[in-house]
Amino acid sequence: MVPLPTMQWMDGFLRLLDQRQLPSEETYIDCRDIDSLAEAIRTLAVRGAPAIGIAAAFGAVIAALTSGPGEEFNEAFHSKIETLEGTRPTAVNLFHCLLIQKEIFRRNPGRENAVRALLKSAHEMMQSDLQASRRMGRFGADLLQSGSIVLTHCNAGGLATAGLGTALAVIYEAWDRNILTKVYADETRPLLQGARLTAWELSRAGIPVDVLPDSAAASLLRNGEVNAVIVGSDRIAANGDAANKIGTYQLALAAKAHGVPFYVVAPLSTFDVSTSRGSEIEIEQRSRDELACFEGRKLLPEAAGVWNPAFDVTPALLITAIICEEGVLFSPDAESIKSVLGKSSNSR
Fold first, then answer.
1. Which of 85, 177, 197, 307 could form a disulfide with 155, with the two C-beta atoms 3.0–4.6 Å apart?
2. 48: pLDDT strictly greater than 80
3. Is 234 tagged catalytic?
4. pTM score > 0.85 for this model?
């Protein structure tokens, strides 16, 4: 699978594939300052935990390039980083990548040194993400049988990463091995990331995909149509609870009820051991307009309120396994997560 052109560092700016326009148009936006990048992250022009983190890493380069010289340089840089940190509170990759970049900045004083080191670090993060995606794809495909049909939710593909994906990396690998028959993709209300993005990615790769309403997924699982549910994650707590796009939790419940394996695919950068359990994860609340309007048409009466969380949390006890670049964690818990993170640290 050839990586999707989700983002590219140009000469002094970051070019992003504008996911808000897909599948109607393939257009790009150029982020030359922190405000434009923060807006792109906040409005989902770039989305998906790994992609947000990598975009923010390149954002640190933009912050260094656009901060004033002299004594104010350090202060201006960190102020711009704080702007990026305020864009999406749930996706831990954002904070993980910016923490690395802040340390790089500290160790490389001066604009020229800082820009060079930050850019090198951001490119390394992108390559690391691609390598992790390939490994996760192989580990995940090993769990599937010939003739498998899988269900996925939201978009955890190349658009959500450096170009290959997490959940969709497994699907791409299974397709290449000729063991995958078809994919079902939830439409993923209210912004339709499954219908607009996942179906676009899979169709582009020649993989058969059927889109279904989120409300139909439980019936699909009950009917025995699906061999596995495969999703991504934006943050995994120390005990294995996983936050992902709203609607994931109900899929996990239905999969458990009907004996269908439920797999979460995420790189180690998505694990957050500082958060002990899922109930501690801050859940981003999105705007009323996402539910109240669609393509300029009003859907709700003015007197109606909304509850529009971007994510929900699936308890670890509902997760058959978490697939990361270090392997497969069956029945994930605090001990297995601590072990895999320790293994990764020792290998570096």
1. 197
2. yes
3. yes
4. yes
- Structure token digits, residue 330: 């069956």
What's the rounded Cα separation, in Å, for the pair 91 and 237?
12
For residue 194, give the nearest of 57, 336, 48 by alpha carbon: 48
What string of DSSP letters covers 297-319?
EE-S-TT-----BSEEEE-GGG-
Q: According to CATH, where is 3.40.50.10470 located in the chain?
A: 134-347
Q: 192 — alpha (psi -120 to 50), left (phi > 0) or beta? A: left
Q: Which of these is catalytic: 186, 214, 234, 312?
A: 234
Give the long-range contacts of residues 97-101, CB within 8 A, separation 24 or more. 97/53, 97/54, 97/56, 97/57, 97/125, 97/269, 98/53, 98/56, 98/57, 98/60, 100/57, 100/125, 101/56, 101/57, 101/60
Each residue of 170-210: pLDDT tens digit? 999 999 999 999 999 999 999 999 999 999 999 999 999 99
Domain with CATH 1.20.120.420 in the chain: 7-131
pLDDT tens track for 123-165: 999 999 999 999 999 999 999 999 999 999 999 999 999 889 9
% of the chain beyond a pLDDT of 90? 87
- Specify the CATH architecture of the domain 7-131: Up-down Bundle (1.20)
- Distance from the Cα of residue 34 to its chain's centroid: 21
Q: Tell me yes or no: is domain 134-347 CATH 3.40.50.300.
A: no
